Amino acid sequence: MAERVHPFARFAVIPALLSLVIACAQGPGPAATGAATPAGPAGTLTVGMRGEVESMHPYLAYDIVGISVRENMFDGLVEWDYDGKIVPGLAESWKIDGMTITFNLRKGVKFHNGDDFTATDVKFSFDTLKSADLKSASASNVAAVQEVKVVDSNTVQVVLSKIDARLFDVLANNVSIIPAKYYQSVGQSGFIAKPVGTGPFKFVSWAKDDKLVMEANESYWNGSYKGKPAVRTLVFRPIPTAATRVAELKSGGADVIQDVPPDQVDALKSAGFDVLESNSPVYDFAFFNTTSEAGAKLKDARVRQAMNLAVDMNTIIKTVLQGHARPLAGGVTDLTVGYNASVQPFAQDQKKAKDLLTQAGFPNGFTIEADISSSQKPDVAQAVIAQLGQVGITVKLNALPTSVFNDRWIKKQLDPLYFVTWNTFTHPALLDLLAGCKGFISSFCSQDAQKFLDQGGATLDQAAQEAAYKQAVDVFSKDPFALYLAATNSLTGVSKKVTGWKTHGITVILGTRAALSR
Fold first, then answer.
1. pLDDT at 463 > cutoff 60
2. Where are the chain's structural domains?
3. Is 186 exposed, middle or buried (0-12, 13-18, 19+ CB in 10 A)?
């Protein structure tokens, strides 16, 4: 029986396993005061980004910077809105009928070069993303899509080979719609040199490691959650060093900056800048590898419970993260479908931790090794390790080059404990990837949790997903797959001359709505 899809809650699948570590809101997010002028787009808004986009091709850019570029220059059939919820994009509506999803497309939309948007472009976009020639690391995310059929110019059917619970998140994150006619005329390299989408901003130029320049699309279609551009020019500057981003904001070299360091929030506010803070889907874990010989002692759930009980995350959040985070409970927060309000974060109880270790046969504790990517700050990991030492668990931390860390992660060869910051944890089906018995990058298995993960992953019905994943989270609260550390908050620095800036539910930088005071 056909049914209207209800908007799925929250945030995105990391599109590329090659970007596991480096890829890195509750809503509605806070906004800077003021409103955009009705006089039309004006001025240049410069944003200090935390890194460089990998490519101008929307299917070859994977981290949050690449997602931000896509959100500004392209649109998808469905989108994440400012609350992180799935809403209509280039598709006005859709119906699910078994393994077929029929999308009714928005009429009157044009690409930046003037081409009309049609169902042919949707089919071409899927075909291009999945093509062997492109070698997109995001292709695996649409593996469940067997075929895309053009019904007429305004209707397209997506036929699935299997149910993928993350499908609508994948569509929002990975499938930016590209113009078939233009792409075929200029080829892949020509498209990368001058990308064309339907988004609120148009490509102007890109000088790698210097800046990406976009201009307002004054013909942007009505009805998008993104709203219309209020600035004439949008500039993204890659500034990987946090201290340099802060300095650029202070000097006027940037009007907005990503990822304000927690220890700089008060100083920036005192200096007259806004720092907009919102809950985000950026989760910190220390995963357990229970599949290796070295991790054999972690097979006992009492040991894993003891390790969680040894850690005082409230204090670490207060002292290391300056209060700009909140503890994880069962591996998720209320930003995610499947959040279980009855599951509370582990509260530090080192006496109980020692008792559990004794019951498990480790009255004097033990020694293990842990891994962390060299691209990840070690301060939280170091604080956690110090507290584990207080119950007799000695941890040696190894910083691995990111490429080595990712390679060992995929091969399930990391040490018994490994620290990961997972960005855009948008759907609980990620629990299967990260901690399922069959998960591609999981080194853990709980058969009790797996049956609920399987139930949630086998349906596109949100209510059924919610029920199944809540039960999985309940199991994981007693049979932990990781040290559940924190969900870090999004911190965006904004100049006082910027009005109307609004933080986004998946922490992307979206240049619409914001204006510059005149």
1. yes
2. 3-273+495-516, 281-488
3. middle
